[in-house]
Design brief:
With 93 residues, the protein is mostly helical. 82% of the residues lie in helices and 0% in strands. The chain is flat. The N and C termini lie far apart (36 Å).
Length: 93
C-alpha cells in the first residue's frame, strides 16, 4: 500500500494508500503482539510467511516474477520455517 502511495500521482490517492498502510501496520502490530506467543518461534515462521506473501504480491500486483536466486534463497527460508515449526510441535525447541 505504501509502495502504491509512493508511486501515485494524485495527492488524494497518495494519502489514501498511506493511511491504509498505516492502519494495516498498526493492526498487524496489535494482532501479533497481543497473544503470549514465544517471539523467537513466531519470528522464524513470520519470516517465511512474509517472504511468500511478498513474492506473491510482487508477482500479482507489480508483474515481477521472482528470479531463480530468489526462489533458491526462498527455498532455504521455507525450509528453516519448516524446521522451526517441526521442532516446536515436537517440543524440542
Amino acid at each position: 500500500m505504501v509502495r502504491s502511495g509512493l508511486h501515485a500521482h494524485a495527492f488524494a490517492t497518495r494519502i489514501l494508500f498511506f493511511g491504509l498502510g498505516a492502519v494495516v501496520l498498526f493492526s498487524y502490530g496489535c494482532i501479533v503482539n497481543s497473544p503470549p506467543w514465544d517471539f523467537g518461534k513466531l519470528l522464524g515462521v513470520y519470516v517465511v510467511f512474509f517472504f511468500v506473501v511478498a513474492q506473491w504480491i510482487n508477482w500479482a500486483f507489480f508483474h515481477q516474477r521472482p528470479s531463480g536466486a530468489i526462489l533458491l534463497g526462498g527455498g532455504f527460508i521455507v525450509a528453516g520455517g519448516a524446521i522451526i515449526s517441526w521442532a516446536s510441535l515436537r517440543g524440542t525447541l
